[in-house]
Amino acid sequence: MPKPARIEDLKLTPYWWESAPPAVTDPADIPGTADVGIVGAGFAGMTAALTLARAGRRVVVFDAMRAAGGLECSSEREDAP
Fold it and tell me: For strand 59-62 and strand 74-75, is the pairing parallel, antiparallel, or unpaired?
């Protein structure tokens, strides 16, 4: 039976960042006006932003993480291939 994952073994960044780390970018200036402000640049936030932008709205997306972020959690197991 495999050992259960331990919290200290959790990896908080995607595995692909090890071989292709994301570029470090400066935050963009926040425009003075917008029709809609979206908090969160995950799938739901970006889908909402794209849908609204295609409908002609001026959209600003705010996210706490860096560009192309997202939080991927996985655990490393000794018996994993």
Answer: unpaired
The residues that bridge with 11 in the sheet, in sequence order, are 74
Q: What's the confidence (pLDDT) of residue 74?
A: 36
Entry pTM = 0.55
CB contact set of 10 (below 8 Å; sequence gap of 6+): 73, 74, 75
Residue 1: DSSP 8-state: -
Pairing between strand 59-62 and 36-39?
parallel
Listed in sequence order, the residues at least 6 apart from 62 whose beta carbon sits closer than 8 Å to its beta carbon are 37, 38, 39, 40, 41
